[in-house]
Amino acid sequence: AVPVSVVFTPGSVPADLPRQLPYRDVREEPVPVGCKTPTGRRCPRSLPELLWVAPGFLARWQSQPRSRPSPPRLPQGTNVYVGKHRSALVRAGQGLAALRARLQQLTRVMSFTASSIAAALADRVPDGQLGPDARRHLKSSLGYEITFSLLNPDPKSHDVDWDIEGAVNRYVQPVLDKLSVVANFSVDSQILYYAVLGVTPRFDKESSSFLLSAHSLPHVINPVEARLGSSAASLYPVLNFLLYVPERSHSPLYIQDKDGAPVPTNAFHSPRWGGIMIYNIEAPASPQASLPLHVDVDMVRVMEVFLAQLRLLFGISREELPPEFQVESPGNEGLADWELDRLLWAHTVENIATVATTLTSLAQLLDQISNIVIKDDVASEVYRAVASVQDAMAELAEGRLRSAFQASKEAVTSSERAFFDPSLLHLLYFPDDQKFAIYIPLFLPMAVPILLSLAKILREARQRKKEPTKMD
Amino acid sequence: MAAALSAAALLLGCCGAALASGVQDQAEQFFRSGHTNNWAVLVCTSRFWFNYRHVANTLSVYRSVKRLGIPDSHIVLMLADDMACNPRNPKPATVFSHKNMELNVYGDDVEVDYRSYEVTVENFLRVLTGRIPPSTPRSKRLLSDDRSNILIYMTGHGGNGFLKFQDSEEITNVELADAFEQMWQKRRYNELLFIIDTCQGASMYERFYSPNIMALASSQVGEDSLSHQPDLGIGVHLMDRYTFYVLEFLEEIHPASQTNMNDLFQVCPKSLCVSTPGHRTDLFQRDPQNVLITDFFGSVRKVEITTETISLDRDLAGFENELPKDELATEPLKYADQLPVAQIIHQKPKQKDWHPPGGFILGLWALIIMVFFKTYGIKHMKHIF
């Protein structure tokens, strides 16, 4: 369950509070994950039943002691201000019902919702409602590799210099440190020269700039990807962040969205792959400036966009916020504590579902193929996976998120190691007609004289039995 | 290559203006397939010089797939023999697919992942199911996930229910179906397109039972797939008919094209191919009408415009004080420490250990000996022992 503690400031206690403060209130709100909906669709049998009744929240209501200074005022029009450390300021409404409703909305924003859980389970649960877009966040993995690339297609005109190491240490590393609970991150960077985009931009006379329309963006990535060297990277999923400095002949270059307006960030991203940002160089003041122009990239502007894309790729960003809500900006840390919690929830649930289906399919495989040999270490990995996933579910029920996540990570590691063990490959399939075709020509000719001799022996034995008195 | 790329880009550029009105529809249609990346596994299973056409088949599909955007890191190419550097090749370092040597499909940037004797049934199944020894390099792995569309192309000599590998072993349709089921269980693909160009190819997809698989074959059960034309200069048949016409069809496709699978099903009718190509779509959830060729052969990524940024504090110098992590004194890792050398060296050889004869064999021989001596009398025993 998600423990929620509601503290009333003096003077804001609603008039219709039924009980004396402080008191506890447990509100169970089962979050259905798409199976066993009213239409009666069944979950796949491999999913543990426990996941259907996801825990609700329990609220503890208490009042603030009078000695504290008065709280800040919320601006007009905002009823809830969500801080970055798991706390929020809620404007006290007209009564308890309105307060409860706002609290429910708040827990949905700061914690998980049915749709976020369903999205995490999306590949295990048969869905009709979720479109193909729902599964575009990065899957839960033990590590991620982030690669920053600077693409300079025109080194003769632009001598681009970027202080990537400093920028990574100053801006990216704090975010990754905060995310280090979730996975291991490794960062590298490279500069690619003469790497062109796959699309020629159009020249727009009105703005005297070059435009890349939204529907040509998908074709931009492919010619570059071959040169990114992501195959030399680790086995973890790779996130590529590309900074493209357009050629002199194509400057300035803007991205157009579907309505034809230039995009303010001048960047786009592709789910599960990474992001690209176009960095325009201002034309030099005097046309006789000597080429190549030296350019120092403003890393803050770049990192603002890249980190925002990182949040979008991980699914941290909140798309639909209720209208009266305002969220505090997380600053250099990149994400609020409760956003990290939501990510951990989603990943834990995804891990548990993965382990359940992996172990079930492993069991099915072993049922089907009876002569596979299971090595001892595979067996111990399976036991460890089962124990860890039970731990994870118990911890989740208690609300201890970090330990649940660690347990689910161990469970996933063990189950993957067991499932993908190279010794489990079963190669020999003998259909029945092949078995007959092999053994009959071998044994039939050999069996004919044996059977005939057997018949002769039996006949003799029977005859001897028939005339016992012939012996003198 | 650069000229072709800029020509294609120019084509795209001038199409861009015309398609401005259709952008909305395109965007909708674009999101219909749920995949975010593409993989291709291209397998040629025959060796020997006279099977040149199988290598040329595979390389033609490789070339199309690369041209339409799938990078080498996402292609697993398995060629069972080396035709380009074969001593019998009169034009070394080339593999042609059209007669009169028009099109060299062995270009400058062919990356073969499994070559020659590494192309075995076991390795193929390991690639598909992911049960690969940990020492395998990344280029030899199929690192697909649940949002990958995979194209699997196989060619070689086949029969009713099997495909011959390297002239010494075979893979049956049941094993292939089981391998795909293993992939589905682990969600290693979103959708799978299986193309096979062998004799009696349709038998290979008869046994599939996992969802989201579409299959095409060059001939039905009982029919042979025929080769296209021999080249008198090289002395062998250069391509198989089905793949020849598929290649012609794919040359018309560019990364932005909207051609769908129904057109691919019409490729190579019986008049051209002599065999009857078949296809199977009952396991596939979408209508083939809505499936673009580039969903499998190309790599058109879904993109979203980034509309938000976060705000960073520009002058945060506090993090410079942290000790950089690489200043900690660590001993350099020896090579032997990083590899499980002990495991690799002491791997037991794979051949079976000697087992004493089992009950069946013992019983059989006992029966034979007993019958012999019963029939011919016990007196022969002393002559034997």
Describe, in plain words, how this protein is organized in 3D.
The complex is a heterodimer of chains A (472) and B (385). Chain A has 472 residues and is an alpha/beta fold. Chain A has helices at 96-110, 114-120, 164-178, 221-225, 299-314, 337-368, 376-398, 401-419, 432-466; strands at 2-8, 23-27, 57-63, 80-82, 88-90, 143-152, 158-161, 184-193, 202-204, 209-212, 238-244, 253-255, 267-270, 274-278, 293-296, 325-327. Chain A has a five-stranded mixed sheet, covered by helices on one side. Chain A has a three-stranded mixed sheet with strand order 1-3-2, with no helix packed on it. A three-stranded mixed sheet of chain A has the order 5-4-16, with helices on one face. With 385 residues, chain B is α/β, with parallel strands linked by helices. The chains are: A alpha/beta (472), B alpha/beta (385). Chains A and B meet through α3, α4, β13, α5 and α6 of A and α1, α2, α4, α5 and β11 of B.
Q: What would you say about this model in short?
A:
Chain A is of the alpha/beta class.
The dominant shape of chain A is flat
Give the CA-CA distance, first to last residue of chain B. 81 Å
Q: What proportion of the residues of chain A form beta strands (DSSP E)?
A: 15-25%
Give the uncertain stretches of chain A in residue-range form: 32-58
- Give the largest interface: A-B, 86 and 79 residues
Task: Kindly report the average pLDDT value of chain B.
Answer: 81
Largest sheet of chain A: 5 strands, mixed
Structural class of chain B: alpha/beta
Number of strands of chain A: 16
Number of strands of chain B: 11
Q: How are the strands of the biggest sheet of chain A laid out side by side?
A: 8-6-11-14-13
Bin the strand percentage of chain B: 5-15%
Quaternary organisation: heterodimer
Distance between the termini of chain A: 99 Å
Query: Major β-sheet of chain B, in short?
Result: 7 strands, mixed
User: Order of SSEs of chain B, N→C?
Assistant: HHEHEEHEEEEHEEHHHEEHHHH
Taking all Cα atoms into account, the compactness measure Rg of chain A is 33 Å
Shape of chain B: globular
Q: Kindly state the mean pLDDT of chain A as a whole number?
A: 76
**Which range best describes the helical content of chain A: under 10%, 10-25%, 25-40%, 40-55%, 55-70% or over 70%?**
25-40%
Q: What is the percent of helical residues of chain B?
A: 25-40%
